[in-house]
């Protein structure tokens, strides 16, 4: 099992969460909530209003999201879904645990005395330069005050 941190449309209550609970794509077990230890820019970009975490450590906000434990099948699905490695790149990042719900894995979260876990995160280093000038968010919600509703793939 691998740990994945999701901050965008794959979170609970967001447009693509359905994929996280579709066992035909693999297993994803919700473990808790966290935020990036380092600051990153989280922008909403492109004509489909897609959230992107730009891989520019030290700029932006501590990004809020959810921590999942996923099997190899789900990890492969997520790589494909996220257009890895072209659109997003899957990298290990340090995530501060904010709230832990994982059963049986609670000791694992506590094992890091500082409450920090390494998780795979889909961020991007391949983006148009003008994206750096977009507004930065600390947390993503498709129906947030920004007014930039995500466009589902099946509606494009």
UniProtKB/TrEMBL annotation:
Catalytic reaction(s) noted: epsilon-(gamma-L-glutamyl)-L-lysine = 5-oxo-L-proline + L-lysine
Keywords assigned by UniProt, alphabetized: Lyase, Transferase
Secreted as UniProt keyword: no
The UniProt record lists the keyword Oxidoreductase: no
EC number(s) per entry: 4.3.2.8
Protein family (similarity comment): Belongs to the gamma-glutamylcyclotransferase family.
GO cellular component: cytosol
MF terms (GO), sorted A to Z: gamma-glutamylaminecyclotransferase activity; transferase activity
Purpose: Catalyzes the formation of 5-oxo-L-proline from L-gamma-glutamyl-L-epsilon-lysine.
PANTHER family in the record: GAMMA-GLUTAMYLAMINECYCLOTRANSFERASE (PTHR12510:SF4), TROPONIN C-AKIN-1 PROTEIN (PTHR12510)
GO BP, sorted A to Z: modified amino acid catabolic process
InterPro entries: AIG2-like_dom, GGACT, GGCT-like, GGCT-like_sf
Active-site residues, record numbering mapped to chain: 82 (proton acceptor)
Residues annotated as domain Gamma-glutamylcyclotransferase AIG2-like: 4-122
Name the record gives this protein: Gamma-glutamylaminecyclotransferase
Source organism per UniProt: Notiomystis cincta
């Amino acid at each position: 099992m691998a740990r994945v941190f999701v901050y965008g449309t794959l979170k609970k209550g967001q447009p693509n969460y359905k994929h996280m609970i579709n066992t035909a794509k693999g297993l994803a077990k919700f473990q808790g909530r966290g935020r990036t230890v380092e600051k990153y820019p989280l922008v909403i970009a492109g004509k489909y209003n897609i959230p992107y975490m730009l891989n520019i450590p030290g700029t932006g906000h501590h990004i809020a999201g959810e921590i999942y434990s996923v099997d190899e099948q789900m990890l492969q699905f997520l790589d494909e879904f996220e257009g890895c490695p072209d659109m997003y790149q899957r990298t290990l990042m340090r995530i501060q645990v904010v709230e832990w719900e994982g059963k049986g894995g609670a000791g694992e979260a506590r094992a890091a005395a500082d409450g920090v876990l390494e998780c795979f995160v889909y961020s991007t280093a391949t983006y148009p330069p003008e994206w750096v000038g977009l507004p930065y968010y600390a947390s993503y919600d498709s129906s947030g005050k920004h007014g930039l509703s995500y466009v589902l793939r099946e509606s494009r």
